[in-house]
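thread: overnight batch results

M.L. [08:02]
morning all. the overnight job finished for the chain we discussed friday. pasting input first so we're all looking at the same thing
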Amino acid sequence: MSGALGKVLCLRNDTIFKQAFSLLRCRTSRENPICSAGGFLLNTSRHYKTKPTHGIGRYKHLIIAQEPKKKRGKVEVRPINLGTDHEYGVVNIHLTAYDMALAESYAQYVHNLCNDLSIKVEESYALPTKTVEVLQLQDQGNKTFLDSVLTTHERVVQISGLSATFAEIFLEIIGNNLPEGVKLSVKEHTEEDFKGRFKARPELEELLAKLN
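M.L. [08:03]
and the structure it wrote out:
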């Protein structure tokens, strides 16, 4: 009898414990909702919604601000070095050819040669391309027709500080290595040479002449 009573009391205590545990579980689920999956309790509350993001997803502060481009002003003529009694001032080496690749290749050779011989190269640039039309007269009559179009390419290697004693040797070296089809000329730099680098604008010159 006592054994049966003990079993009944144990079962009653077990049911009371289960009911208390279920009530406690329901109460905690209202405060902090959870769900079970595969025997594990997964927290479904979102605590991060109440916290600041601290700039998450913003990237503009990582990009370096670029300075606004400055407007190009009028190009001014730099003072020309006239040289001394023992060395030349600014000297222009003009290379002219009908083949652009040939003129560019030989200008690069002269530039590298100046670097090897410790001759200061101020700059190396190209002049505007010139086009010449060749007209041929007909055998009978006075009319002419277009025979061919010749395009002239010119490159300039500008050097300075060339000594008078070494100038003859330097000119002999570049003259002996001059390829066929390339014309070489060497002269001192002038203001007209600087202006010849830029393309002429006759319309603008006419308007300026009218204003003046």
